[in-house]
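Quiz preparation item.
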């Protein structure tokens, strides 16, 4: 199918490290990894250009309890390296399924990835390759949410799709409050004012300043990424 039949021609998919951690407390779950790879392959098969930013929380999270006693800058660098491990795993899963993929890291490690260079990233997308953008922004104190917002702007993605465990944005945690109210649509400003955990405030502010829409959706509803690319109403939309 040609991308002209989809609503979006270029998307950035933001996933937490836990997305490929599955039910494991630590590391990578093979079944979850294959599921994510299938979802990416499915939307890529429509002719949509796909960039992916993975977190590293299934291995190491810079601002977490496990990082206590480690210098914050060092801990954040360790977290960035965790995202490279996840990206390499997803690259392997995708390429086994016949999808051409490139890992592009903000921290240079030439033997396992390409350096992230904006023009090269865009060229890979134009050639139909999925790009896995690793190591965050390459700077401490910035999350992979912020990296996703920044890279989406740089590669001229039309939308950020944030896959989570819940189907959208709620006024409180639906995992703990069964009466939590779900928003079909919400503004950036409301997200910031309510302190909702969509993405961190830096990422939301960057998207607001550049009018980059975000859709928060349940990654584990099979086919959701494809449906979003086709323009269906899935999850919650954050825009101005």
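Solution:
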């Amino acid at each position: 199918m040609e991308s002209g039949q989809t609503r979006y021609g270029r998307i950035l998919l933001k996933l937490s490290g836990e997305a490929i951690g599955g039910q494991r407390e630590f590391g990578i779950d093979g079944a979850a990894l294959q599921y994510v790879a299938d979802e990416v392959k499915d939307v890529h098969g429509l002719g949509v250009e796909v960039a992916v930013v993975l977190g590293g929380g299934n291995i190491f999270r810079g601002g977490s309890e496990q990082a206590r006693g480690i210098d914050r800058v060092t801990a954040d660098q360790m977290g960035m390296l965790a995202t490279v491990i996840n990206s390499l795993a997803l690259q392997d899963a995708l390429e086994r399924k016949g999808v051409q993929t490139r890992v592009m890291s903000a921290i240079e490690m030439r033997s396992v990835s390409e350096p992230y260079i904006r023009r090269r990233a865009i060229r890979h997308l134009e050639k139909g390759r999925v790009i896995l953008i690793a190591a965050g922004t390459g700077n401490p104190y910035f999350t992979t949410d912020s990296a996703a917002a920044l890279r989406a702007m740089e590669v001229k993605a039309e939308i950020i799709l944030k896959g989570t465990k819940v189907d959208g944005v709620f006024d409180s945690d639906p995992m703990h409050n069964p009466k939590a109210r779900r928003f079909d649509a919400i503004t950036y400003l409301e997200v910031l004012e309510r302190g909702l955990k969509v993405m961190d405030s830096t990422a939301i502010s960057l998207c607001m300043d550049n009018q980059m829409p975000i859709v928060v959706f349940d990654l584990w509803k099979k086919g959701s990424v494809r449906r979003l690319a086709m323009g269906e109403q899935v999850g919650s939309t954050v825009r101005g």
